[in-house]
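The material for today's practical consists of a large collection of protein records. Read left to right, the backbone structure tokens trace the chain's path through space. An example says more than a description, so a record of this kind follows:
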Amino acid sequence: MLSYTQHSLDKLESLLKAMNYRVRYEKGSFKTGACILQASKVVVVNRFSNIEAKIGALLELIRQLDVDVSLLDEKQKQFLLNIKQTKLIF
């Protein structure tokens, strides 16, 4: 299980960066907390969401992505596997 801390958020951001995605925190009226712009590989997170919502949104987005695991090191591959196998409970 992933704890809702700044460290966990940083780990998710690092994983996305390794997958060649950029994470930006912007104002937005979107309710999910984050959205993805596929063509430009940019993840936009609502900056006004609390840390739990930010982490939950990034986890859901990562689960939906088709990942080229050759871009990841072994720790990141294991982290991704844990993310894909864990169910979110709010």
Q: What stands out?
A: The mean pLDDT is 87. The two ends are 12 Å apart (CA to CA).
